[in-house]
Amino acid sequence: MKVMKAMKRVALLTAVLLLSGCGIPATGVIQSGDPATGVRPPNPLLYFVTTDHRLVPVSREVTDPVGVRTALDLLLNGPDLGERLLGLTTALARIPTPEVSMNGAEVTLQMSAGTEPLPPIAARQLICTAAAARLTQAPDTAATGVTVVVTGPDGQHTEGASRTCSIPRPAAPPAETPGISPGG
After folding, report:
1. In three state form, how does the secondary structure of 29-56 look?
2. Whole-prediction pTM
3. What gap in Å lies between CA 81 and CA 66, rounded to an integer?
4. Could you tell me whether strands 55-59 and 157-161 are parallel, antiparallel, or unpaired per DSSP bridges?
5. Annotated domain spans of the chain
6. How many CB atoms lie within 10 A of CB 141?
């Protein structure tokens, strides 16, 4: 008898809950603007030379994702007008894009036949641009860093690593301060 009363109460409670809903009236489709268009790709970092012969990273605006080869193509095209107005230049004048091969965290750049030996700052431009592009392309390489080997047509190797380049990291979100709520 007690079981029957309990079952009736559960059934009644279930019916009341189902019929009452959550108190929010049904609505139709609410128009709120255009759909999201997706996430923009990260801008590649290209390394140019300042008037005092320092290497600096420059973020170049792009619309499509950029791999190592495309980043090197952008670098070898030299600084754009705005970058030149800032006094940036390149030590890579008239250098063809090297052949690019990648194996995990290692990038190899094979310079074309006839390419003159690169001055150290020019090699660093290639190394840092390739390393930054590989870190963006394969984020799992961030833990170990990226090694870049530039091989000249004479077989001479110049090696560098992402840890020796100034590669800005994304800013961490601000930490919440205890007792202060966002917006006030």
Report:
1. CCCCCCCCCCCCCCCCEEEEECCCCCEE
2. 0.70
3. 21
4. unpaired
5. 45-164
6. 20
Residue 59, SS3 per DSSP: strand
The tens digit of pLDDT for each residue in 77-99 reads 999 999 999 999 999 988 999 99
User: What tens digit of pLDDT does each residue of 120-150 get?
Assistant: 999 999 999 999 999 999 999 998 999 999 9
Helix (H) or strand (E) holding 134: helix 120-137
Could you tell me the two tokens for 136? 């963006």
Q: Token pair of 150, please?
A: 């530039």
Between strands 106-110 and 147-151, the pairing is: parallel
Rounded CA-CA distance 130/3 in Å is 74
Distance of CA 152 to the CA centre of its chain: 29
What is the percent of the chain with per-residue pLDDT over 90, rounded to a whole number? 56
